[in-house]
Structure formats: C-alpha cells, structure tokens
Amino acid sequence: MGKASKVMELFLHPEEIVPLGRMYLAAKKAKRLPSSPTWAFCYDMLNRVSRSFAIVIQQLPEELRNAVCVFYLVLRGLDTVEDDMALNTKKKLRMLETFCDDIYKRDFIVKDCGEGNYKRLMMEFNNVTEAFLSLGKVHQDVIYDITKRMGLGMKEFIPKEVETVEDYNLYCHYVAGLVGIGLSKLFAACKLESAKFATKMDALSNDMGLFLQKTNIIRDYLEDIEELPAPRMFWPKEIWGLYAEELDEFKDPENREEAVMCLNHMITNALGHATKSLDYMNELEHKWVFRFCAIPQVMAIATLATCYNNGKVFEGVVKIRRGKTAKIVTELNSYEDLVSAFYNYAGDIAAAVEPAVDPNAKDTLQACKDVQDKCVKMVKGANKSGALSSSNQSSFTSKLLLFMLSLGYASYAFSLGGVRESLGVSADAGDSTIDFIQKIIAVLCVIGLSIILFLQD
C-alpha cells in the first residue's frame, strides 16, 4: 500500500490515529532486548516472526513471559519443519518425532530448513534450547509434552489428506488446540490462573486454538495453495468438494461464485468455536493473561468478518486494516470490550449474509445469532450493563472534532471572520500561490470530512 493510500485510510478513520501511535510505541518498546545474548536472540526472533504477538507477550509477568516466548519459538521451529515442502519426507517425519527430545540439546540446530527469518531461527536454534533449559522444570515439562504430541500429530498428517471435517478438526487440534492446552497449563504453573487451568480446561482451550487456526487457514488459502514445490491443502474436501472438483479451482476468477460459497461455508464452520472461546475467556482472572488471550481471538473474528463473502481471499491474503488492528491491540482491556467486539463482528457477518444466493445462509445466521446470544447471556450473568454498546459514539466524536478543525483551517485559508487578524497575520499577507493551495486543501478537507461525518455509518 502506498503512502497516499495510508494517508487516505487515516483520513477515513481518524479514530485510529491515536491507537496507531500507541501501537507504534508498544512495538518500539518490544524491541528493547534483554542483556543476555540468549534471551536477546529469543525476543528479537519473536519480534521478527510475530510482531503483534510480541507486543502482547511483552506485557505478561516475567516468569510467564519467558516461558511463553520459548514455547512459541519451539513450536514455531516445529512448524517450520512441517511447512518446508522442500525437505526430504523421510527426514521430515524423523524430525517431527524427535524434535521434543532435541530441545534438551544445547547445541541443537537445523540447517537448510525454512526461509528468511525462519531459516535463521533454525540455524541458531541453540539459543532457544539454551533458554528452554533455563526455565523451571514445570515449564519444561509442559513444553516438552505439547511439542511431542504436536510433532506426532503433524507426522500423522504428512502422508494424509484433510478429507473430512473430522480430519480438519483433528489437524487443527494438533497444530493449535494443543497450543491452547499448553498455554492454560503454563498459566496455572505460574499461579496467575487457578489450578483448574492445568486439569479441567482442555476442551475449551482446544476451541480457542481451533478458532484461531481455522481463521488462519481460511485467510491463507492462496498462499498455501501456491506453496512451492508442492501446495499445502488444509481445507477439508468434505466442504470444498461441494463446490469444486479440485481445491485450486477457486483461484480461477471464473469460479468465483462457487469459491465464495465455499469460503462462507468455511467461515461458518469456524464460527462454531466462538462461543466456547468466550466461555474460556470468561474464566480468566489475571488482566494481562486476559489481554494475551483475548486480543488474538478478537483479531480472529475481525478477520472472519473481513473475509466473509470477500472474493479477494482468492487473490491474496486479506488482512485487517492496520488501524483496526491497532485499536484491538491497544484498547481491548476489559471483558466488556471483548464481548462488545464479538457481538459487533458477529453482527457484521450476519449483515453481509445473502440468503438468496448462499446455500449456507441459514447456518451462518444461526452461528452469528449463537455468538450474539452468548454475549448477551454472559453480560447479563455478569451484570455488566452497557457492555454491548457500539464504539460508534467515540468514532463520531473523533470525526466531529476533525470536522470542526477543518472548518477552522478553512476560515484561516479564506480569511473569514477575522481569523488571520486574530492570529496576528495580515489578511492579504503571504504568497498568493501558497494561499491558493491552502484554499484547495481546506475545501477538500471540509468536503471529505462532511462525507465521512454525515454519510458514513
């Protein structure tokens, strides 16, 4: 996106300017690395492979922060092995099975695996294992257990296609549901959440992971299908087979109608995990653990709302507007914020449903209703009045303020009402060319903000 487009985005969404500034400062803070070379590598790599995640993780208490950082990098390493389609299959299967044991080796590295930052991560993985070995045994045990189970699960799917929805759920469990289970156990191990998170939250933790993973799989369709030397195909044939003979047919613009139907079907399937995610987050008590969990979940449902009925998913990766991301990352601080976001994004999806042309319309509307009903029920149960209020009022206030400022600037540009004189500037002072340019800018500002203020939602 060019500079002009970015400026236009800010012009259209002025309420996102402050969150963008706050996110910039948070990202800058996240880049301040520890003095230890080992931990400096880990946090630098975390910033490189997951910027938004790095910002949120930096806000966790130190014990949990370090454990989660290592946990993430270990699993990112395992994922890099799975994702490398150029890696010899026999070698890949062996590595997926033994990776959990290799993290106990201080000199463990992997050559010629991955690309870019991921290749560097693998080449210098000894830093990650060094950090892993410095953690407490309870943290090591959790990371080892999840890495082992995930590696074996990935190994199971190397020769196996994702045929059924059951396969799809199982694969997502292996690569993401287990992450949720491991994080819950780390929360309990650090005594930031109750002991039940170590023993009784596996099902809800799994739903948290599946909601995120299915969102990523939907969003990354084109990137995965065009992977070289061989495509990665995670959409279940039980779903896409209803709309095409081959999964890659959706890339063809001639098949866009069927592609979007399939996309909406996939999104409806993902929404089935949203209510369980809300149940999980309702149990969280620690503020920063809550933010750590809630921000990715809101990003997920926002992504689904952006992707729904959107044929651009088959042309490239569809992303949430950066300003919207900044608002989520910087302003999601309470349970009310979480519930409002889920309620509103579910409403956005429901509003985009086209019953006349979408065979899944009824199921999609029901899934959205289930999310909104859950939000209402949980707000009433918690006696949190006003949690479902929209953010439209704050947005309107921001736009109104900018509109008033634009009127003030126009008054100056056109020498109205003695504005220039009140500022000590002669009405006829200045370069005529500059005055003309200022008048043009002022007119554009007033017209543009008038449209935004009075014609937009």
From TrEMBL:
One of its GO terms (cellular component) is endoplasmic reticulum membrane. The chain crosses the membrane at residues 400-416, 436-455. Keywords: Magnesium, Membrane, Metal-binding, Transferase, Transmembrane, Transmembrane helix. Its cofactor is Mg(2+). It comes from the Eukaryota. The keyword Membrane applies. Pfam families: SQS_PSY. This is Squalene synthase.
